[in-house]
Amino acid sequence: MQNFVFYNPTKLVFGKNTVEKIGEYLKKDNVKKVLLLAGGGSIKKNGVYEKVVRSLVENGVEKIEVWGVRPNPVLSKVKEAISVAKNENVDAILAVGGGSVIDSAKAVAAGVRYEGDVWDFYSGKAKVKEAMPLYAILTLSATGTEMNGNSVVTNEETLEKFSFSSIHVYPKVSVVDPEVQYTLPQNQLVNGAVDAISHVMEYYFDGEEVSLTDRIDEGIIKTIMQTTEVLLDDPKNYDARANFALSTTLALNGVSGLGHKGGDWSSHAIEHALSALNPDVAHGAGLAVVFPAWMKYVYSQAPERFVQFGENIFGLKDCKPEEAINALSDWYKKIGAPTTLKELGFKEEDIEKLTEIASKMAPMGKLKKLERDDIKKILEIAY
Amino acid sequence: MQNFVFYNPTKLVFGKNTVEKIGEYLKKDNVKKVLLLAGGGSIKKNGVYEKVVRSLVENGVEKIEVWGVRPNPVLSKVKEAISVAKNENVDAILAVGGGSVIDSAKAVAAGVRYEGDVWDFYSGKAKVKEAMPLYAILTLSATGTEMNGNSVVTNEETLEKFSFSSIHVYPKVSVVDPEVQYTLPQNQLVNGAVDAISHVMEYYFDGEEVSLTDRIDEGIIKTIMQTTEVLLDDPKNYDARANFALSTTLALNGVSGLGHKGGDWSSHAIEHALSALNPDVAHGAGLAVVFPAWMKYVYSQAPERFVQFGENIFGLKDCKPEEAINALSDWYKKIGAPTTLKELGFKEEDIEKLTEIASKMAPMGKLKKLERDDIKKILEIAY
C-alpha cells in the first residue's frame, strides 16, 4: 500500500427533498449573494430551479444568474462567469447542474480570486492558491465532481481539454437529491455509469493492490452495474437511483483510490482527445470505447488483476484477461453504450488527428507508460 | 436508503514514517504549545514518543505532558488534563496512543472550552459548542476514533460508561503509521478486530439495507478477518497491517453507515456495562461475547440479513441465520477471543448487576427495541 493523505472537507447532503435546504446552508455560512451557474435549462423542467430560488429568497440570499454551460464545458463560458462574479460582487458560487456546471463553477471560484488567465490552472502555469466558497446542487450523477477538487474544461481555441485539481475548490456543501434524476434521458444514465466505473478502474488498474480498496472498488462497480440495469427499466426506483448516485460520488471522492498510486488516467486523457475533436461525443460514451481498448493493450503488465476483475465483477471463474475485458465491453453494449470509434462517428483518418491531440500529454500512464505510438495503437484497437 | 449528511473534516495522514511529520502539521496551523496526552508508556518502547518529541522540537512547538490514560479511560484523568491544559495555556491537544487516549483527548479539547463539568457532555446535560484543535497519532487500530467525533469515558464514581459525539472534536489531523503497530500484543490485535467488526455490524444490522454500503461493509469485515489471521502469524507484514488499520478507520468514519439508520448500538451499550463493572475487560473482548448473543436474540426481526451475512462473509450458501451467527462466534474463538461471560470472569450472579447498569440506557436498539428484560435475556445467552 502506498502512503497517502485523505482529506475531503465537502459536506455531502444526500437524499429526498434536500435541494430546498441550500438556502439554509448558505445563510449559516453568512453568504449574502451568489452567482448561480447553470446549463441549458433542464433544471427549469425538473423543478430544481424553482426550489433553489424559493430557498434563496426564504433565506435572504441574493443571486445573479449565468446560464449556458454546455456538456464538455468551454473556457469562454468560464471567463464570462468570472467577469460577472467580479462585477456583481458575489461572495459565493452556486453551481446547479451536472458535472459540466460544477467543473466550470470550480474554475470560476478560483478564477475570481486570481489576477491572471484562469486557463493557467489548466495549462499548469499557475496553482490555485485560494478560491471563493463553492456550493453545488448535483442534477446528474456521473463525474464525482460534487465531492472532489477536479475540474475539466475545454479551451475551444486550442482544442485542449485539460484539468486541474485543488483542495480550494472542493464544494463546501454538495446537495444530491436522487429524485431529481428520475427524468434523466437514458443515454445520460448510461454515460454516467461508464464514467464512474472508469474512475474506479483507473485506480484499480494503476499497478497497486490494496485488498480493502479492491473490495470497495468492486462493490462500487457492481452496484453501478446492478442499479443501471434496474433504472433502465424503472427510472423512478428510488433505492436504485440513490445507490447509483452514491456510488458515482464514492467513485471519485478519494475512497476508491485509498493506498493506490493516484490512478492511471491514460484512458481519460485519450478520451479527452475524442471530445476535444468532436464536442458532441459525451465523455462517458468516449470512455466506453477507449477504456476496453486500453485494457486490451496493457493487460499483459498485470494479467492477474484482470483475472481478479473478471472473477469478482462478472463471476468468471479462472478466466483469461481477454474474457474479463470482453465481459466489460459486452455489458457496455448491453446498456446501449458505444464500443467502437466508428459508432461514435469517427473515420479511420481521424485516428492520426486524435493521436496528435492525445499525445500532447504523453508520456502518460502508470500500469504501462504510453508514448505516441502506444496511444495510436490503442486508438486503432478502439476503431 | 435514509437521507444523510456526510461530513468528515479529519485529514488522515497514513503510511510509513508519518509520525515524524506531526510537527510540520502543527506548525502549518500555527500551533505554539500542545498538551501531549499519553497512556502507560508503550509509546516510549516502540519509538513513537521519541519521534514525536523530535518533530515538535524541530518545528518549534512547545509541549506539556500528561501521562497515565488507561484502557477504558476514566473521567478523573480527563479532568486532570483539562486543568493542566488551562493552566499551561496550550493552544492544541496532541493525543499519542490508542482509542482511550484519543477519546480522552476529545473530552479535554471540549472541556477546556467549557465552564461546567465535562461529564455534562456524556450525561447529555450539555452539548459541545466548541473545542480546542485536536491532533492525534494512533498507535493501536481498533476504535476508529482517529476519524470521528466520538468519545467514550467511564465515570468511576457512578460506574457509568457513557459517550458523546460532536463535529467539534474530530481530529484536525490523524496520523496512522501501521509500522508502529508491529509490536502490539496479540490480544490487542484481536480485541481491535472484534471492536471494528462490531462497528460495521452495528450499521449492517440496524434494519436498513443499502446495497452499496453492504458491499463496502462486507469488504471491511472480510479484510479485517483476512488480515487478522495473517498478522497473528506474521505481525510485521506491512500490507496486512496497513489494510487492517485502514479497515478499522473506515469501520467508524461514516463510510460504513452511509444511508443507514445511524446503527443499532445495543451491543456496544450492553458491553459498556461489562467494562464498567470490571475495568479489566477489554472493550473488544466484551463485544466478542455480547454481539453474537444479541444476534441470537434479535435475528428473527430480519432473518434474511443474517443469511446474506453468512453467505457474503463466510461463503455459506443458503444458510440459516443461526449458522451465520455461529460462524462468527467460531471465528472469534479461532483468533483467541472469548465468547462467553464466564470466560471473562463473570459469575452467574453478576447478570443482575450487569442488567442493572446496561438498563440505564433502555429502551435501546433499532432492529429490535430492547427493554430491561430483553437485556437480561441477552446477558443470559452470553453467559
Description:
Two copies of one chain form a homodimer. With 383 residues, the first copy, chain A, is of the alpha/beta class. Helix content of chain A is 48%, strand content 13%. The first copy, chain A, folds into two domains: 11-180, Rossmann fold; 185-382, Up-down Bundle (Dehydroquinate synthase-like, alpha domain), CATH 1.20.1090. Chain A is built from 15 helices and eight strands. Chain A has a six-stranded parallel beta sheet, with helices on both faces. A two-stranded antiparallel sheet of chain A has the order 6-7. The mean pLDDT of chain A is 96. The A-B interface holds A 1-18, 210-212, 214-216, 218-220, 222-223, 226-227, 238-239, 242-243, 246-247, 250, 255, 258-259 and B 1-18, 210-212, 214-216, 218-220, 222-223, 226-227, 238-239, 242-243, 246-247, 250, 255, 258-259. Strand 1 (4-14) of chain A pairs antiparallel with strand 1 (4-14) of chain B, so a sheet runs across the interface. Chains A, B: One of its GO terms (cellular component) is cytosol.
What's the structural blueprint in terms of helices and strands?
The structure is a homodimer of 383-residue chains.
Chain A: E1 4-14, H1 22-28, E2 33-38, H2 42-45, H3 48-58, E3 62-66, H4 75-88, E4 92-97, H5 99-111, H6 119-123, E5 134-138, E6 150-155, E7 160-165, E8 173-176, H7 186-204, H8 211-233, H9 238-250, H10 266-277, H11 283-298, H12 303-314, H13 321-334, H14 350-358, H15 372-382
Helix pairs in contact in A: 1-3, 4-5, 7-8, 7-9, 7-11, 8-9, 10-11, 10-14, 11-13, 11-15, 12-13, 14-15
GO molecular function (chains A, B): alcohol dehydrogenase (NADP+) activity; butanol dehydrogenase (NAD+) activity; metal ion binding; methylglyoxal reductase (NADPH) (acetol producing) activity
Protein name (chains A, B): NADH-dependent butanol dehydrogenase a
Domain Fe-containing alcohol dehydrogenase-like C-terminal (chains A, B): 190-383
